[in-house]
């Protein structure tokens, strides 16, 4: 369409000498920070540190290992809290590698002045979520920072799970022809949190979709299908998840916009604030890349699982335009679903 | 410019001498300033921009526009499809 | 949402498209003035579905993009002052000034807050009587009533720690400036519906007349945009150049008289620089003398702030449809959405940003 | 000595409805918070969550799993930075379970405005420390919080290691008669950090002792000795470590004050500020409880290792006064080494 | 550290202990007035090594412990004000007022900072001209010169956003009050060496005389404390009651005349409440009129602050050696080092805290 | 009361009209206000409390005290040990 000879990749991190909010948005700035600053710093000790979840071998076992820091504000929101989010999020990162999650750790960074009652509600939510997910919280740590050096409770969970032999679920396995599946509707978590965000408060019935997805993954694996990629579209939403997969596997993705399940409450909130629902975070959804001949079986298995009742096919992995995600619009045009840059901002225009 | 969306008035009140409304946008609700559409009544639709109603939405006119589009489409069918 | 979904109906959209194709016999260059309509066109892929040779030129109607560099630099200077709470619509935070943007100022410790409405900023001022609260009052005629009422309320309620950094711009003078440009290629306009919801349509017939261009006031949903294009092309094909209202559900001919009266009280016309374009005479609003004490430029002496626009950036030519973004030497090299040099790379619906997103699409 | 009939344990957390600094001091308040609020919140999913490092079984392997959050201020101090601290600290928590550390995760919570150059120095320090320790940084996460909701870089590392069969190193195994050994001198890390703490700055040649200790532990295990307890005396210092062990195993500990290795620079700084060197943090030391007949072998092995050259016996585990640590003073009296309450405060008196 | 290590020599200490044992023929009750000496006694286990019947009664000489509840409550009230930076020596942060302590006030958002020296607080005031910086000026005669010079400097340098919350206490009136107590058991005193480094020894002979008690000025290292005890017991055994200086390396008879002159300029004698004991006439210093504007109580109106001492606490009797801590019904139940009710449970060298730590030692 | 420690003057200066010294406490160094011991010279020992020298340490006297303790110890040995 456009001649782009002479195109050069912009120098990463150029002209941004300090951390800004966008580095935490889960989009291009986050990815650049990891790729061009953190991982190079690790040198030989890193290498695979870009991964959301590592699959490693230890003591003869095939383990999945992951970590995530949770700094969500507010800490309590419709449908959940930072506590169940931190448990489910780490369970899901393990599940996206096809692992059976077993053990979690939890490290708290508490701001002076945080009500202990809030901390109690959070640990109770963690316990309930862990029990529901069948994992155990086996180790932890607690630090306190001064008032104005934190914000209530920050919570980092890490998780260990076991990956069965033969299971190889990785972004780089996305292949042209794969069916792209989603396990349910989009944007509930992000809208629920935004609705309680200071300065933006609005009334909505949308609640977070936070849920543990390893049971759903087990059901998908039980079909015998060769799952190529699984991904939980959290920060940066479906847009970030698909762009990352496309970039990693050097494939294109074509979505059919009409098939993208955006619930009314999410669409309405996004309209009001000028947000793109595809960039809004989910905490109980997964996107799967599956061989086309196995897609129907996998979809059927997903729909039979409580956390996959809304599963559907949303697109196809293609060889064309590698690294790029494109949606066919309802009118029959196409638009590029680009990688979010920093974090989402309400728009007036 | 100017992301503005239609919403339905649920309830009207006065705050600090300014008429305000709770407006429903398909389930999402926000408080909206009615200073510029002071006689808006519950059930009416308003065009809302950055927390302000800037205009009433004329439902009758909306219906007529849509009817017109439909009519044009039917006419066109009579004359055959274009490439 | 009611009245959004109906006006996005794909079947009716395809029907309108077919009628556009049927009506078009030669190439036409239309400009949608408004960034919201640009957004809609790209979002729904409308430009790709138009007849070959019908070109949509993206106009300077994104208030975020056209806010002049000098004002952004003043915003950064004010926001960086101790004791200031600087409030803004979200999409202004990533717009770069000469050096940095509001995000970076915030990262250095400034208290910069995103609000949904200027009234939220006034509430913050009331809740923080020992702080100076400044709202970044940008926007076209659509946003001006909100900012006007807010400053009016501040005066009425005696909230003296509130002020407005004003950079309002006006559509009709911009249309004139575009048409006066010697290399202008625009043959017809889609005028911005929500601007007209406030201002009415009376300013446009004289422009249609003077420049011999059809102007169709329309909305933002796919059917609205398509109907605007259909009416403009129909006029062009028929050799007409009139102002027409294709958005009657939201635009009465007189606009909103209550709002216009408030605007006349709070604001007065001034010359205004448009980012990447230059100064357009009489194209902006500033606070009247009655509200001078609520003017942030007045309250905080920022007269020493000098802006240096990038010498590389050709966004003015892009905005007027004179060059394509990739003809700018900076495009995609030193200028990217993450490190924008010009207005048109800042916002996701800016012409340069849109081209950037599409750069890799197999043509 | 004193009649204490009718003694009752004070109600935990009573009258402290909010988080205060002391909850992060590694002393009694920290322990109470974990024991009486966090772990009860977890319910059935917790149970062993009090542990600094859990030993679990996964996929047939015997794994050690731990996490620690690092919020040290300043981030750079004589002898190290938050980066090597976070790597060594987690390596050490694994080592204290007798594990061979293998894989680490790192979750960053970055404050807006933090110089990226600082982050680069930290990740480089992490890489160097991981390489030195022979572990790999395999997964991670990055979040950004607003200016004034963080303090530069907070870093949570988690670690996974493998524990050989037969190795059972746990606080509850401390037994009367055990020799109590320390691997080197005390208080260097805490004094190094304090010397750069805003408001307290002083000049000193004392540098942090931060070091990975799993090699030292391997050398100790290689003697064939049955190590009962290992512990790194970090926050709360030797006082907290020994009190915790004494409380867990219901044993007493008797130290000989003359044998406690407090280097001059540490003693001097503690004198100046009125601190107790036994409560000052160490980051490259371990305390070991070993069968008395094996103590000499273990000590010899320690002294032959680069991180154990200063190893010595400092006391004995006893059946008397269970839960209590007592030191025989140089004059021949005794004093109680009590559990620190909150964090250390400079004294004027 | 030179001059600390030498005076801790275990061999010489054992020799002094043997001499004390040799000299002692009957029970004696001595009070070390100073908390620092209490700390040394407990830290080195000296009390356990004394002859049976020689009892060390821990005196009220910890400035942290005796700061009255009402002053702590004022500190909490001032620290909680917006715009205040409240600076304190570290060990004051955990001392409870009627409700909470400085840690809790800080956890609720107050800017409470630990400093090593009052001069550090003055530096903070200079660096933060838009904030009110308050230093918690507690202490005995040893600390008073530091606070005096700091406020003197503030005046000299015109640092007007600095003030001092003063609660200075004096040793000689406390000795009188203890001796005047009807149930007083003290037969001899160790006087606080560092107080005398400033004030000299001239105030003590009249007290020895009046109350018939030996007073031995001594230091803080084991040999100093033991020598003080040795000299006191030797006097008692011989029926003498004199003031003697066992700490000549740090205490000239005249103290520090420069410091005393500054103290006379900055401070004047006032009645002062001692926590757990009550008001002792003429036992404190407050700022003179010349420095009134630097008085935090004056600058921040805290006259409405009312303190309610725990009705359970018997620390006054403990401090005077009239009861043992475990005879207090609250001890170890509602009163613990983590939740102290009284002064003597607050500081690690307080008598109640010391008993608490030892409670589990097999006797 | 009153944690005060002996330190050796390394260097003296004047800051804002106030005499100050860098004082060495066995390796640890802090700046100390000399207002109350204004004629302290490098090499001398001072008693320092909360950043202020409150007194000079009389080294000769310290030596004499220690000698006395030693002498008493020797004397005592002559007379035999106590229980
Ligand atoms: S690519 Fe960038 S520099 Fe070039 S015209 Fe567009 S905005 Fe300006
Ligand atoms: S135990 Fe507590 S309440 Fe009783 S006297 Fe001591 S400090 Fe007061
Ligand atoms: Mg992860
Ligand atoms: Mg993930
Ligand atoms: Mg995750
Ligand atoms: Mg820990
Ligand atoms: Mg906060
Ligand atoms: Mg740990
Ligand atoms: Mg540990
Ligand atoms: Mg640890
Ligand atoms: Mg992550
Ligand atoms: Mg900070």
From TrEMBL, chains A, D:
Family: Belongs to the HypE family.
Residue ranges constituting the PurM-like C-terminal domain according to the UniProt record: 176-321
Gene: hypE
InterPro entries named among the record's database cross-references: HypE, PurM-like_C_dom, PurM-like_C_sf, PurM-like_N, PurM-like_N_sf
CDD domains registered for this protein in UniProt: HypE
Domain PurM-like N-terminal: residue ranges: 51-163
Protein name: Hydrogenase expression/formation protein HypE
UniProtKB/TrEMBL annotation, chains B, F:
Descriptive protein name: HypC/HybG/HupF family hydrogenase formation chaperone
Organism: Actinoplanes flavus
Stated family: Belongs to the HupF/HypC family.
From TrEMBL, chains C, E:
Family as reported in the entry's similarity comment: Belongs to the HypD family.
Descriptive protein name: Hydrogenase formation protein HypD
The gene coding this protein: hypD
Coiled coil: none
Key words, A-Z: Iron, Metal-binding
Family annotation (PANTHER family): HYDROGENASE MATURATION FACTOR HYPD (PTHR30149:SF0), HYDROGENASE PROTEIN ASSEMBLY PROTEIN HYPD (PTHR30149)
Metal-binding recorded as keyword: yes
InterPro entries (UniProt xref): Hyd_form_HypD, HypD_1, HypD_2_sf
Gene3D superfamilies: 6.10.20.100, HypD, alpha/beta domain 2
Domain of life of the native organism: Bacteria
